[in-house]
Amino acid sequence: MCPAPVSSHWRRLLALLLLLAGLQQLAGAGIIKAKAWLAPVLIGQAWSRSLAAGGEPVKPWPWADTWPVARLRVPAQGVDLLVLAGDSGNALAFGPGHANASAQLGGVGLAVIGGHRDTHFAFLQQLQPGALLQLQLPDGELRAYRVETLSVVNAQEQSLPRDFGDEALALVTCYPFNALRANGPLRYVVFARPQPGIPFAAYSM
Fold first, then answer.
1. Can you tell me the distance from the alpha carbon of 102 to that of 167, in angstroms, rounded to the nearest whole number?
2. Cβ neighbours of residue 109 under 8 Å, at least 6 residues apart?
3. 137: which residues sit within 8 A by CB, 6+ positions away?
4. For residue 28, what are the CA distances in angstroms to 14, 34, 115, 202?
5. Tell me: the pLDDT tens digits for 72-129?
6. Distance between CA atoms of 190 and 129, rounded to whole angstroms?
7. How do strand 132-136 and strand 79-85 relate by DSSP bridges?
8. How confident is residue 199, by pLDDT bands cut at 50, 70 and 90?
9. Bridge partners for 73 per DSSP
């Protein structure tokens, strides 16, 4: 029997390599989807364990560099999000993050929570002054805030105050919401003040 032509052999080899590359891409996409599904589940479980432990930080997976530090709800928008420690890119990929340089959540000063405009904080463009925000802290404490102002600031020219004094909460995301390019200098800031005495609906996870 005559050997197959060299060109035929190379075509078969090329087809095999293309098939393997395609399978690798499919496997990679599957892993990404699995991570996107699994991460919120693990973060939710870590939050439940943190509440049960009286507020002790609990990492969602052993090598995580962040952990849930609060639960943010906006009843009028149907928003229910877990807030993570830190506002690095790694943390913000999984949810809104509490800026380490800002005040402690629920404490005196201005606490800042940042999030991506096209995912977790896309709802900010629908908020109006007077809207109610609810925050649950790791020790189970519940705090309510009322939105006072909405503003756009240039992060290169203006920074949020650090020595704020009274307790306040700021939700911050990039602006405009429909920008084609990310990492511009503009920030959309939702400023809210505490509203003690407002009843809460039951929290469950």
1. 11
2. 102, 103, 162, 163, 164, 165, 166, 167, 168
3. 55, 69, 70, 105, 106, 143
4. 21, 10, 26, 39
5. 999 999 999 999 999 888 889 999 999 999 999 999 999 999 999 999 999 999 999 9
6. 9
7. unpaired
8. low
9. 80, 134
Cβ of 160: how many Cβ atoms within 10 Å?
Answer: 18
Q: Measured between alpha carbons, how far is 59 from 43 in angstroms, rounded to an integer?
A: 8
**DSSP characters over 33-77:** HHHHHHHHHHHHHHHHHHHHTTS----SSTT-S--EEEEEEEGGG
Pairing of strands 110-114, 168-174: parallel
Domains annotated on the chain, with CATH: 62-194 (2.40.260.10)
Residue 66 near residue 82 (C-beta atoms within 8 A): no
* pLDDT score, position 10: 60
Give me the residue label for tokens 């690095």: 88
Higher pLDDT, 8 or 143: 143
d(CA 156, CA 58): 35
